[in-house]
Amino acid sequence: MKQYLKVYNSLSSTKEKFEPLNPPHVGMYVCGPTVYSDVHLGNLRSFLSFDIVFRYLLHLGYKVRYVRNITDVGHLENDADEGEDKVAKKAKLENLEPMEVVHKYTQGFHRVTDIFNLKPPSIEPSASGHIIEQIELTQKILDAGFAYETNGSVYFDVMKYHKKSHYGILSGRVLEDLIAGTRELDGQDEKRGPLDFALWKKAAPSHIMRWPSPWSNGFPGWHLECSTMSTKYLGKQFDIHGGGIDLKFPHHECEIAQCVAGYDVPPVKYWMHANMLTINGQKMSKSLGNSILPHQLISGDHPLLEKAYSPMTIRFFMLQTHYRSTLDLSNQALIAASKGYKKIANGIRVLKQLQHPGTTMDNEIGKADQQLTQLCDNCYHAMNDDFNTAKTIAHLFNILKKINSIHNGQLKLTELSEDTFNRVKSTFLHFVEDVLGLMEERPDELDLLLSIVMETYQEAKINKQYDKVDAIRKQLKDQGIILKDMKTGVDWAYEE
Are residues 250 and 292 located together in one domain of the fold? Predict the structure, then answer.
């Protein structure tokens, strides 16, 4: 399947045949969290999107080195901040040391990724651990003539770079329009051009996080850290660089400029960007009061939420929309996702119990085999089309219909060859659990407890104790479980 994988490349705005630089090895870098605040849902959606890319490439047999960084040096987002140290600012508010803030929010980020079943990256470097390398890259850019030093700070010369290369190649921005749209900001008087950005910033006296350099005691610019860590662990040119669409400009644009200036080669073959998350059709914003954190979705503790939603419901909800499309969150969408996830969870449980008898019927075996083989192929076709999880889920539901037909006796296992059944079972379970990362959410010892309850239920039916039968059904339904009277006996399922 590898040769048919198509990836939408933000650099060319087209889908391109995925050809790793060093097959079957893939280098992938994703901009990680800034650890001075909680992870918001938009961040989670972005990290989840690239978790899927990582998982699917592994499923196809690639050896993937996945690097996701931690930003922990204050996060200078633009030069108008005058070097505001956001980690130190948070430390003062919470009465903590700066590195306590870093540790606290890094641990919080890892808890979120664990709760939503994101695979850990191969390497998770921190910006503060790569100061030497960032100083070295700054010096390379200075030596190449694309940066200048002013009052202890070093700035990238965008206009000079643009004369040789193309600043705006990723975002499609026109340099002249960008310059015309700039306005005078505090702290820009020492820059030669309004679009020039900091590679190294001299620290103000109040700036706690600082390091010695040839130019001053200071700290690196935000854009520099990703260029440094990505090339250190993946080489001067690697396969995939991902992040949220809000990072496309200026962050990723500046990364390209830094690497071309310092290493004389474009750093990335495929640029990928996850789109934004909205709520009830509006952009999430603290000022609008509609900003929801992941833990609030799980607890239901937010005025815009009608109820709490499980982590796998939220993960399933996010996967129902292609990563390049805007995702709108609402109670209606989450409730629908809960029903959809539970259908999938019931399918997992049923399929794991099914075993092919090893014998087949002679009539109609070819037709059933052909249908199910095509359904399995469709899952790969969808994921090979720029990791389209929305289409993949639709195909999985088509397979699920067949699984349920087998479970309720409408389709006999003997109508399928053993090879076809085994492929259906493998495809469904691998795509749901390994590629989409969906897990069955169940309390410990649930099967044992339900077996005891179902024995009591059957005895009540035999003894015609219908009040007891109804009471058992109601009690289980209140816990999200329904009992099903099957031809083969009593079974249970998650309420959808």
Answer: no
